[in-house]
From TrEMBL:
Single annotated GO MF: acetyl-CoA transmembrane transporter activity
UniProt-recorded name of the protein: ACATN protein
Keywords of this entry: Membrane, Transmembrane, Transmembrane helix
Compartments where located: Membrane
Length: 238
């Protein structure tokens, strides 16, 4: 219902913008970035060929490999260990004010001549939080009781999530600030879109690979069936 409602709102508002919003033809920009789709892709290709851009793209495509598993799998593993999905969803509510405030605070530190310094400083802490998330998953069955999980366990999870948000937004805002700083003003939109797309891809492909590797890398034991492996879903079901 939630997704259906907001999907409908999205479709209605987008349609209204398409039909009701008119371009101001009197105020044309002094220099247009591109003249069409073909020119846009030619421009993107010429940007990508620049050595500095290639190096930077390689950096942001691989920089999130170290914590992709912790980011993508922790919530699923906590649910697997018995933490109710509803409780995990509720724990996300206190994060909303933090997610609003953090970019405002962090932007003060990324506004200088070297915005990526914030990115570099946040990375080791985010990697350490990956180990802390692994500890949370390991700890879950130890503290679980008949009534569920104690309040102090949820408090530790919320605190861990809050610290994770600080490191996540420090890196996110720093990358955005750097992209905005290095983008050529004459082709700012195209340049910025390219760098942001690569940055988003750098966050998504490691998470996809991490999720895909969960089953092959999970060690399972068969209870009551000696000599059999539960490595595959079919074997585990049998």
């Amino acid at each position: 219902d939630f997704l259906f409602f907001w999907g409908a709102v999205f479709l209605v508002t987008t349609t209204l913008v398409a039909f009701l919003k008119k371009e101001n033809k009197e105020l044309t920009p002094a220099k247009e970035e591109t003249k069409g789709i073909t020119d846009t892709y030619r421009l993107l290709f010429s940007i990508i060929k620049m050595p500095a851009v290639l190096t930077f793209c390689l950096l942001i495509l691989t920089s999130k490999v170290g914590f992709s598993a912790a980011d993508a799998v922790t919530g699923l593993k906590l649910v697997e260990e018995g933490v109710p999905k509803e409780h995990l969803a509720l724990l996300a509510v206190p994060m909303v004010p933090l997610q609003i405030i953090l970019p405002l605070v962090i932007s003060k530190y990324t506004a200088g001549p070297q915005p990526l310094n914030t990115f570099y400083k946040a990375m080791p802490f985010r990697l350490l939080l990956g180990l802390e998330f692994a500890f949370l998953v390991w700890w879950a069955p130890k503290v679980k009781h008949e009534g569920g999980f104690p309040v102090y366990y949820y408090a530790v999870v919320v605190l861990s999530y809050a610290l994770h948000q600080v490191t996540l937004y420090s890196m996110y805002v720093a990358i955005m600030a750097f992209n905005a700083k290095v983008s050529d003003p004459l082709i700012g939109g195209t340049y910025m879109t390219l760098l942001n797309t690569v940055s988003n891809l750098g966050g998504n492909w490691p998470s996809t690979v991490a999720l895909w590797l969960v089953d092959p890398l999970t060690v399972k034991e068969c209870a009551g069936a000696q000599g059999h492996s539960c490595g595959t879903a079919e074997a585990a079901e049998v």
